[in-house]
């Protein structure tokens, strides 16, 4: 297949399996400017599927950099609240949401972390009404990636630009199954396999997960009414979508006050333009009480100090070490891909979907049941081929869930 054919298959996969756009539905897309060729194809497939209106919003790395270089100090406490309010209004009106990512993971590496952190905070705050619609699955949504030259350079620093870009595209098409003869059918089969896994885990009703590996000795308590999710999900508007493409994870809700022990990250984390590497943290009663990072420590400390929930867990996810993303051997420097290479945890906001009945509770009731709340949600990888995970049953008995990073059953 030519690149253009693959891009078309990828666009169709996004509209049909990722979003599952319903006739009459609007679609809001955010994308890097480089992604115009893909956005055009997605727009075409969305209208063919019956979308009533497709609204693309583009962002540009050079514009972002110009702000940090030349804007006055008060700029960094400012965000486009009007835009995010508009997006939230669109979602309230049942618009679907597509985010295309692919910006340089190290774009802001040389910028003052204080400015970056203030700008992120202002943005997170302004984005919250829209993010809540997404994290509560009010509407169908999907995240995919576009291989930009700057991202390709970051993933393959030793290669000439053309080769790096071609290699990143090949990896994207492979990991998303867009290069198979029937990508939509392949996703349906993959989703079914993930569903069997979540059905099994939901039936076990574990009270906690126990992790053992190099630098890791950690117990993560799960909320009582936790629900394992993975692959396709039904949004509250009744549409079944695949929120992440690729996705190899099954995930659920940790208890915000029942996490204890030490854990070492197994891959670097790219957080809004900065690399954080060599993360080691210790939890006590759910809270990070000690945090180290070999690189980007400053940004990491600021990240977990964003608010009360930023130093507590909002997600725990299991991914076998043999996943296609892990098998590719590539460190993408992009969470959408890297999180599917390894078991991970996320600090910050929990997904409503991961607790039965959460949508009907008040924020105080959710908190009391152990559901975490925060302006941020940041995943980091703690899995590897060296990690063992046990599920702890209600009576305290452990049973082997993963050994050396692979499912036992
Ligand atoms: Zn995850
Ligand atoms: Zn996550």
Description:
The structure is a single chain. Helix 1 (3-19) packs across helix 2 (36-48) and helix 6 (149-155) packs across helix 7 (161-175). The two termini are 37 Å apart. The chain folds into two domains: 3-175, Thermophilic metalloprotease-like (3-Layer(aba) Sandwich); 205-407, no CATH class. The longest helix has 23 residues, at 113-135. It is 34% helix and 25% strand. The chain has 409 residues and is of the alpha+beta class.
Low-confidence blocks of residues? none
How much of the residues is beta strand, in percent? 25-35%
Structural class: alpha+beta
Cα gyration radius (Å) = 20 Å
Ligands in the structure? zinc ion
Number of domains: 2
What is the CA–CA distance across the termini?
Answer: 37 Å
Q: What share of the residues lie within helices? A: 25-40%
Per DSSP E runs of 2 or more residues, the count of β-strands stands at 21
Give the topology, please.
Blueprint: H1 3-19, E1 26-32, H2 36-48, E2 53-59, H3 61-70, H4 81-92, E3 96-101, H5 113-135, E4 141-145, H6 149-155, H7 161-175, H8 183-204, E5 208-213, E6 216-222, E7 229-230, E8 233-234, E9 240-241, E10 250-252, E11 254-264, E12 269-271, E13 274-276, E14 280-284, E15 287-292, H9 297-304, E16 313-318, H10 324-327, H11 335-338, E17 344-348, H12 363-368, E18 377-381, E19 388-392, E20 398-403, E21 406-407
Parallel strand pairs: 1-2, 1-3, 3-4
Antiparallel strand pairs: 5-6, 5-19, 6-11, 7-10, 8-9, 10-16, 11-14, 12-13, 14-15, 16-17, 17-18, 19-20, 20-21
The protein binds zinc ion (2 copies).
The site of one zinc ion has 7 residues, from strand 16.
